[in-house]
Design brief:
The protein has 1 helix and 16 strands. By secondary structure, the protein is mostly beta strands. A hairpin with a 2-residue loop joins strand 13 and strand 14. The longest helix is centred in the C-terminal third of the chain and has 4 residues.
Length: 199
């Protein structure tokens, strides 16, 4: 929320309550928070170190820890079901293609590249990750993919939903890991200048 500053901070609010607790109060931008499976930590993306990195903070707002470092922009963390790892997307300067990486949920953890895409979400079963991927490099025409993890190694990237009329984005798992929900976005129709000038 930007309720206290022009740059977003993280807040926690009970779904059935009115009290709001401010989790971060940094002059940088803190976004894309996600609870750890045990509810003790929140992973998020922040540019407080100069570019976008993944950070983890205690749920009471103490002890923020920088998990990733380097010149790449790294955003949109998603926890593994056991809370030991995070998957996120990364964009190296000048590369122009978002990559998917996995790292242990620890400061300075070694990263493992698993493929190309955006907005990854770890499945509840722990053996699969869903994400969106451009159908052509540099395109915004996204489709929904999954990749299976076999002994921690990425296998069988599979396109599971696509369209010639819509971009498909931001997939998320059902609690049982059997279904996915996602958004569709159509290209904007061309402006009708005759209609526009008749009003």
């Amino acid at each position: 929320s930007t309720r206290h500053t022009i740059r977003p901070d993280l807040y926690i609010k009970s779904v059935d309550g009115t009290a709001v607790t401010q989790l971060t109060a940094d002059p940088s931008s803190d976004v894309q928070p996600v609870f750890s499976p045990d509810g003790k930590f929140v992973a998020f993306a922040s540019d407080r170190a100069g570019n976008w990195d993944i950070w983890i903070i205690n749920v009471d707002g103490t002890q923020p820890v920088q998990m990733t470092r380097g010149p790449e922009d790294e955003v949109h963390p998603s926890w593994s079901p056991d809370g030991r790892q995070l998957v996120f997307c990364s964009l190296a300067r000048g590369r122009g293609q978002w990559e998917l990486w996995i790292a242990d949920a620890a400061a300075g953890a070694t990263k493992s590249f698993i493929g190309y895409g955006l907005f990854p979400e770890w499945s509840p079963s722990g053996d699969m990750i869903t994400y969106q991927r451009a159908r052509q490099r540099g395109s915004r025409w996204f489709s929904i993919w999954t990749i299976r993890l076999v002994d921690g190694e990425p296998r069988h990237p599979t396109e599971i939903a696509s369209s010639t009329e819509y971009a498909m984005i931001t997939p998320a798992w059902s609690p049982d890991g059997q279904k996915l929900t996602y958004c569709t976005v159509a290209t904007a129709p061309p402006a009708d200048t005759d209609v526009a000038t008749s009003f």
